[in-house]
Design brief:
The protein is α/β, with parallel strands linked by helices and about 280 residues long. The protein folds into 2 domains: about 180 residues, Molybdenum Cofactor Biosythetic Enzyme, Chain A; about 80 residues, 2-Layer Sandwich (Alpha-Beta Plaits), CATH 3.30.70. It is about 40% helix and about 20% strand. The chain has 10 helices and 11 strands. The radius of gyration is 24 Å and the shape is elongated.
């Protein structure tokens, strides 16, 4: 039986690190991996810099395998789009022209010229950079435009016990999602994980009030992932095998029931509500 696939994400872009663009790709990918039961170990964000990309890629490929390493961003036609060349260099591979991507670029340039817009040699060279992929990379289905999505296997690929696959995706969210759903998920992710049951319960007590029951869950159900997230209503989220999660959640429900019967519970809830209400008032801090 092939071991469970694990995943890593490398987000690439100065615009992310500069605070000009909010990264939504890693959150979306995390949700897709979770739905397939594929553990996501790391999300790393690096600048448009070949050395930084190399460092991040080497670190992720050194983790437990089989592994899928997904990069997001940096594969367009502008000078700061370095991902394809940087991944090739990191893996010690030359770049080579991918015929289908090159043909898409030709059609795009012809369309541009047909509308009376001059296509200079410099413009064409910059566009054709998108067709230069690491040797051995294969095209992924799902792309709606010229910006490609490609994958390349390391040590036999993610279908091998000790292998990994590097998936290089564009940073534009709509393109990334189309390629992931059309080309990555069916071929590399589906059926490779163990989906986990997730249960949530909310309460309006201070988060720390439930520490005793959360500590009990950690001790008695070490195989269940337990998280507590504060807010106007705190959320407790349990994840793992269905039967174990159901049993652990029953402890939380019983604890909340007992807590509600205590004399000071109403005052405690009111104080917590007032604390969070500060952030909803004008000038609140």
């Amino acid at each position: 039986m092939t071991p469970t696939l694990r995943a890593s994400i490398i987000v690439i872009g100065d615009e992310i690190l500069g605070g000009f663009v909010v990264d939504t790709n890693s959150g979306w990918l995390a949700g897709r991996f979770h739905a397939e039961g594929v553990p996501l170990d790391r999300v790393t964000t690096v600048p448009d810099d070949a050395t930084a990309i190399d460092e991040a890629l080497r670190a992720e490929l050194a983790r437990t395998r089989p592994r899928l390493v997904v990069t997001s961003g940096g594969i367009g036609s502008t000078p700061d789009d370095l991902t394809l060349a940087a991944v090739a260099a990191s893996l010690g591979r030359p770049t080579t022209v991918q015929p289908e991507i090159d043909a898409r670029i030709t059609r795009a340039l012809e369309w541009t010229a047909a509308r009376g817009i001059a296509v200079t040699p410099a413009h064409e060279r910059s566009m054709r950079r998108m067709a230069l992929v690491p040797q051995g990379a294969y095209l992924l289905a799902g792309a709606n435009g010229v910006v490609p999505g490609v994958a390349l296997d390391v040590d036999g690929g993610a279908n091998e016990h000790a292998g990994a696959t590097v998936v290089i995706l564009p940073g534009v969210p709509s393109e990334l999602r189309a390629i992931f759903d059309g080309g990555v998920a069916p071929a590399l992710v589906a059926g490779r994980g163990v989906p986990q049951h997730v249960a949530e319960i909310s309460h309006d007590y201070p988060e720390s009030t439930l520490n005793p029951v959360l500590d009990r869950i950690v001790a008695e159900y070490p195989d269940v992932s337990c998280g507590s997230y504060p807010g106007r209503e705190c959320v407790i989220r349990l994840k793992g095998d269905r039967d174990r999660v159901v049993a652990a959640m029953r402890l939380v429900e019983d604890y909340l029931g007992e807590l509600a019967l205590q004399p000071g519970s109403t005052a405690m809830r009111d104080r917590w509500r007032a604390y969070w209400a500060r952030d909803t008032q004008p000038g609140g801090s």
